[in-house]
Amino acid sequence: MKPYVVCHMMGPLDGQLLVEQWTPSTGQPYDALIAEYDRVHEQFGADAWISGRAVGAEFADGKPHSPIPIPSVERPVHVARSGADEYAVLIDPHGKLHWTGPKTYGAATIVLLGRDVPDAHLAELSSDGISYVTAESDKIDLVHALETLNTKFGIKRLILEGGAHTNAEFLEAGLVDEISLLLFPAICGRTSSQTIFGTRPDGLADRLRLSMISSEVRQAGVMHLRYKVDYAWKNKGG
Predict the structure, then answer these.
(1) pTM for the full predicted model
(2) What is the pLDDT of residues 94-113, one digit of tens each?
(3) What are the domain boundaries of the chain?
(4) What is the pLDDT of residue 236?
(5) Per-residue H/E/C for the chain
(6) CATH class of 1-47+156-238
(7) Between 6 and 203, whose confidence is greater?
């Protein structure tokens, strides 16, 4: 059984991803926008949040430091800490991220890795008190990974806060149960800026339908929109 997944994002009217590129259009400081986003994040009461490698790189400020000699390591799962109040799950298929401790932004860290990540990197994570889950192939099976997060770590509600690529991968795999969007009264207008949900070769239009859960006007004209994601609408005659 996988956790309930909420994709929680923020953006301007044209859906651009990088907050610093559209902040000036709001007339508010960057920190004020992030604080509003964080307030809603906390209201979900999730057990964990998950992001891709690019977001993880913002927090992983260490350098390679595997133990010598390299001890035997656990595969496919190493549980460094169970029962944490909150987990930070980072997707790092090739083992490029390095930490200096067991937490990311105050949450116990779990790393999702590809099959071919060397034992030296796993030993490094273990010595740092970091949990990890390795895949059965070089590509991470998100369905299996989420089931493992539920069974091994007790994660029942997971907030997806990915970049455009990660968000699209989760939607394409049918793993997002709900979308939470803070829509700010702003326009980015950049021609090359990434959007909140990245593009896929075949698109996503014929894969899902959205239905409104709720809408709320918050401070400074911000709209909080919540949608249920339905992947089975074709089978219902929709």
Answers:
(1) 0.94
(2) 999 999 999 999 999 999 99
(3) 1-47+156-238, 48-154
(4) 59
(5) CCCEEEEEEEECCCCECCHHHHHHHHCCCHHHHHHHHHHHHHHCCCCEEEECHHHHHHHCCCCCCCCCCCCCCCCCEECCCCCCCCEEEEECCCCCCCCCCCEECCEEEEEEECCCCCHHHHHHHHHCCCEEEECCCCCCCHHHHHHHHHHHHCCCEEEECCCHHHHHHHHHCCCCCEEEEEECCCCCCCCCCCECCCCCCCCCCCCCEEEEEEEEECHHHCEEEEEEEECCHHHHCC
(6) alpha beta
(7) 6
